[in-house]
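Hi, here's the filled form for the chain we discussed.

Project: internal
Contact: R.S.
Residues: 251
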Amino acid sequence: MKLLETFGIVPDKPELIAVTGGGGKTTTIFALAAALKKQGKKVLVTTTTNMFVPGEDQCDMLVLTGRQEPEFFSGVQPGTVVCLGGGIMEGKPKLKSVEPAYIDALFQQGLFDMILVEADGAKRKPIKAPADYEPVIPALATLAIGVVGMDALGKSIIEDNVHRVELFCNLTGSRQGEVIDGGHIAALATEKQGLFKGTPDGCRKMVLLNKSDDAALIEQAGQVARAITAGGGGIHGVVIGAVQQGSVERV
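And the returned structure, exactly as it came back:
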């Protein structure tokens, strides 16, 4: 329950949660799904971009289809995690995207208690700036979680560390080759074209400063969190933690 409470997720209130950014989106999604499963909820995990095919320990049912038939899911039992993809990408162990309008329809019909959506890709980089066509967030999303890997802090702004370097520089006022600092992360979180670009009106926005897995990074993450809070942008809260280790704290 600690993970759910930290993000303000109440098990008895349906949510459509979109997860964006880099540095642990998929890990965060399946950690939330596992916590909700323990609460006996019917959970759908899906993607509006591409995501790695989940393991057997991450979901109970994998559905691969380009057809949009909500009634297919009418028999899902409580305490079940269903993963939905539009198919498998050729030559890659990744799920194809699902139309956001279909995800909205599933949410409207109440076939799942919770829907978790991976809404953009980061090519396994800890930090990214979104392109014009991303993130792809369903119109009925109730909560957006923007993820940044704190392992990006102190690294150079180059392709090895940042997805979409040029866009990142334009967004944060930085230059290629500079070192990523807390101000860059705060700008990414609060600028309109940053982590939460395209988030629908009324959708709560939470930043996750992930991979804060030692005392120094936790302290630095606290400084970044204060800068995000001071920067506005309609952010509802900042979470510091290392999701894979099961450690999260809202600040």
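Let me know if anything looks off before we file it.
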